[in-house]
Amino acid sequence: MLPIIHGVDNFPLSAATKLRGRDLSEVEVMATDLIGPRCIRSRAGRSVPDIRVSHIAVGFGHLFGVGHKLPIDVTSPPINVYQVMVPLHGQLVRTPDIVAAPGSALIYAPQDCLNTYWSEDCVALVLSISAEKLGAVARAMLPHLDLADMPIAPWMTLTEGSGRSFANALAAICQESMDPNSAFSRGVTTRSLEETLLLSLLLAQQRFAQPLPGETLRRKPKSYVARALDYIDAHHADDITLADLTGITGVSARTLQYGFMEQFGVGPISYLKRLRLRSIHDTLRKAQPGACSVGDIAARWGFYNGSNFSRLYRKTFGELPSETLGRR
Q: Is the pLDDT assigned to residue 216 strictly greater than 80?
């Protein structure tokens, strides 16, 4: 298991195992009952899974240990919680290009749709965090922070800074919750540990709350990231692939992805999508209502699904594209 999650030596929260079996539909039912609808599909044909799920209810929501022994895809309709996924073995991939391995985490925010690939050997801790609870911690401890307006980075390192603090608090909760005589289980340190976990998550997100493309960067990017940015800026209307960017920069896809995630909290293809959204926003602000349609402008930049585009646009700019167009 990942050494930075100290004390989790075997299956996480093993004493709280709630499900062992071979039927993925049982996991769907359990997840739906506790945190909302989930669709789980195997990528392994007729291979038989070996499913194990542990679970504890905590003050901020739910904490799970999950393993399937099978490569799977997990999807959902828009969620109403924050979901943090911490791989201890294997990999988690948030479509299209955000990879979390041991030492990092994936994060989904309210109104996101889950779209996560689990590698066959993946074992992970999954936290379902109440938006109300996280908002209460933000208001109490970071009154200058407007959580509703802060973009949530979908990837977080757990090896340094506040991300490491998050990992330490998570490890303590995992260990303490399995001992009925611990101070955490007896309610003595429960609130302080859970608040430390949530505060560390918020502080880590502040670090990754990078500006949209076109705004001022907070720190100088690595040279290969800078080369990719120059290429994206010059060709962002073209059909750019990850292979194009690795060819321009001379680094591997994984190196490029992690470089972008450290700088922006998203991978290069997601960054490109942000840049295209910014171009659409600028076009709509300058357009004359009635002279063009939102759908035509979105399609010009590669967004062909109207509902998905509107959801992404509203999440990025806080309003519907039709509202931007109608203000002129």
A: no
As given in the structure block, the two tokens for residue 188 are 């003595």
Q: Tally DSSP H helices, then E strands, for the chain.
A: 11, 12
Q: How many domains does the chain have?
A: 2
Of 128, 268, 251, 117, which is closest to residue 198 (Cα–Cα)?
A: 128
Gap between the Cα atoms of 190 and 34, Å rounded:
21
The CATH number linked to 319 is 1.10.10.60
Strand, helix or coil for residue 11: coil
Give CA–CA dist 276/95, Å, rounded.
Answer: 18
Q: Are residues 188 and 236 in the same domain?
A: no
Q: For residue 96, is the peptide bond before it cis, meaning its omega torsion is within 30 degrees of 0?
A: yes
Cα gap 58→52, rounded to integer Å: 20
Query: What is the C-alpha separation between 113 and 125, in angstroms, rounded?
Result: 19
User: Domain range for residue 300?
Assistant: 223-326
**0.90 exceeded by pTM:** no
Can you name the residues that pair with 155 across neighbouring β-strands? 106
Cα atoms in the Cβ-side hemisphere of radius 13 Å centred on 290: 1
Residue 141 lies in a domain: yes
Alpha-carbon distance values, 265 to 157, 169, 205 (Å): 10, 22, 9
User: Cis omega before residue 87 (within 30°)?
Assistant: no
CA 231 to CA 205: how far, in whole Å? 27
Q: What is the reported pLDDT for 12?
A: 87
Cα–Cα distance measured from residue 77 to residue 317, given in angstroms and rounded to the nearest whole number? 21
Residue with tokens 């240990």: 65
More confident site: 317 or 1: 317
Q: According to the model, what pLDDT value does residue 7 have?
A: 52
158 CB contacts (<8 Å, ≥6 apart)? 4, 86, 103, 104, 105, 164, 166, 167
Amino acid identity, position 244: D
Question: Are 53 and 188 part of one and the same domain?
Answer: yes
CA separation for the pair 53, 22 (Å, rounded): 11
